Amino acid sequence: MTELTVKNVSVHADKSMLVDDASFALARGEFVALLGPNGAGKTSLIRAAMGLQDVSAGQRLLGGADVTTLSPAERARQIAYLPQTRPLAWPNSVRDVVSLGRFSHGAPLGRLKGLDAEAVDRALQACGLSDLATRKTNTLSGGELARVHCARAFAAEAPLLIADEPIAALDPRQQFRILDLIKSYVDHGGGALVVLHDIQLAARYASRMIWMKDGRIVADGPPADTLTPDRLKDIYGVTARIEGTQIFIEGAV
């Protein structure tokens, strides 16, 4: 079973500590929300976990192997990654962009066939993009483009997914659509680690919450155990009430 394991990882930038002695694991069947204020170290942590950023201490294991011993293609076959910034160099068709998800499998881009073409078709259908497959990406709305990037990640058919703020700048309906897609991916056997700022949505979708502050993981567990008024006060500096599944932010401390 593919699992990403991070053990006592620290990341420095010059004299600044970006991540301090962080440990967590991600396995299939989990929807994990990574939470914390801006500058808490969330992006540095996930990039370090995947071997995209050097560490000053600690281990990163993917399927039991050190991530630094795996080729980029081997890593991409096990973890699909949606970074915060997802620029498209030119306005390709939706199908061509989604096809990039098969690159780690050695697929000849633009000439997909067999299993690779089928994987792209499945990703397009799952994300509701089949009717838009021939459209140029520069003609899409923000929500449609977000689904294209999700489809590209899903086309890799990797067992794990890491998404850094996939719903940023989207309207509420599109936020639900993207998180529903990720939840479906998890329900079908994948494992997802998703950086989120919307605590209400994190509580609705996540089976686990990892909370970060000042580069450290301060809590890791189910929403029922880790989502508390004291936690929100400590992490975000706000007062809040929690009534069942509803979170009411009342103001700054």
From TrEMBL:
Superkingdom, taxonomy of origin: Bacteria
PROSITE patterns cross-referenced by the UniProt entry: ABC_TRANSPORTER_2 (PS50893)
Keywords recorded for this protein, A-Z: ATP-binding, Nucleotide-binding, Translocase, Transport
Record-given protein name: ABC transporter domain-containing protein
Protein's job: Part of the ABC transporter complex HmuTUV involved in hemin import. Responsible for energy coupling to the transport system.
Molecular function terms, GO-annotated: ATP binding; ATP hydrolysis activity
Residue ranges annotated for the ABC transporter domain, each copy included: 4-239
Keyword check for Transcription: no
Pfam family, one: ABC_tran
